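Note to self: the last two entries modelled the partners one at a time, which told us nothing about the interface. This time every component goes in together.
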Amino acid sequence: MRETVMAGVGMHPFGRFEGKPYTQMALEAVLMALKDANVPWKDVQAAYCSSVFCPATSGLKILTPLGLTGIPITNVEAACASGGSSIMIAQQAIATGLYDVVLALGVDKMPRGFISPEALGEKWQVLAGMVSGPMNFALNARRHMYEYGTTVEQMAKVSVKAHKNGVFNPYAMYRKELSFEEIMNSQVVADPIRRLMFCAPNEGAAAAVLCSRDVAKKYTDVRRCPEVASAVVKTAAYPGFPVMPYYSFSTRKKLVSPVKLAAREAYEKAGIGPKDLDVVELQDTDAASEINLYEQLDLCNEGEGGRLVDEGATEISGSIPVNPSGGLLCKGEPVGASGLGQVAEIVWQLRGEAGKRQVAKPKVGMSQVVGNGGICAVVILKN
Amino acid sequence: MTNGKKRVPLVEGLFSIPVTPGEKAHLIGSKCRTCGEVEFGSKTICGNCQGEELDEIALSNRGKLWTYTVLYYPPPLYKSPDPFVPYGVGWVELPEGIAIHSLLTESDVTKLKIGMDMESVIDKFDEDEDGNEVMIYKFKPVT
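The predicted structure of the combined assembly is written out below.
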């Protein structure tokens, strides 16, 4: 297998851009990534476009203004794990020698408010009010509190941390610090989770140019191109994980999280362990999920996620900084673009280009996204 | 059953509708003859071992609350009462070794507790165009 590197990344800010078409947002991110990699468009041999809410053949529509070059352009959809899935496919194509230069891009322009449950569950479940992201996050949060004594205060602290970091991220939608009290006193949306503990679906785009290491040398200084040490996508295994819209799950067997499956395989393929990570961007759709994910990614033992928050271990200055970008809580979540946005952040962190949100001298970073039905993508990058 | 109006399920294959007063709701399960795993609803393939010999069983009416939440905002497309009222949702663990995703009759979060005893009920959800009562399963705290 050939070594794959991230030759360049680009991002269009996440937020609300009334009147700006998704094609334009995505094209800006692509041009930034191509320029960053110093790769001419005509040298790109394949493109994978992640989106959940954009129309059919969105990848082709986005890239057509660059000039038709005859390459395969494939749309990739895997809910919130779409971006990570594109990276996985691109990395496999390079590692196996199929291509030398591949573009992965992600974009979405989502309706305001809750994500529509229409595509997420069966019609009767939707009518009955049984399909909702916040509902699902709340159910998991309540169980975590029961099993491990995790507190709502710890969830609020996660949100405080995110908003402290987001102030320094020009690509984030929310760039204002929030106090612990403001978060605790915001309306309860789905008990126990408050409004200011949720991320917002929004709009944005991100892109990455992946190359084999040898070919990357032709274009750029490979010292600024982190290696894609692993890119893994997994779904849950029986009896699953209580992610909507299951009818039931077996309680006679231990639950199997797709995140744990993906993370363990990603560590193994990268030849590292969780202790080797210096920076992590993970799927903080809500503050409670972030705590749960610390455990599923083996950043700590099961049940110790809350303690990690109390100790400040996941702050930018902590022992394992998580979401220095401000996470989805500050950036918002254009689902097709979020995974690539994380990857862009990790690349900037590993190059030391993250400005005031820079983690001290990171060598290894992880991006993790997980979505509806239990699809998880984990990407590990290293210098 | 007055005026020829019927009680119809919101979804087929998950529960029976009690006919006589006092008759208990009965949720439908599928038990695999090969591995013994049980799943909610009428199924043709076992999710554990992919066995194709499954027996339809009546699930226990009683279980314990595994987790819960109360929603204070309506999800999009929810056929909510007008005006919207907060409602409870949870997972209830049955003695057969499965947890079931269900609406709860209780919407006061202070009255819900993980581990509490729950029983299944069939509740009116809506009326269809013909005036039939559309029914759904829920779980109710045992008092």
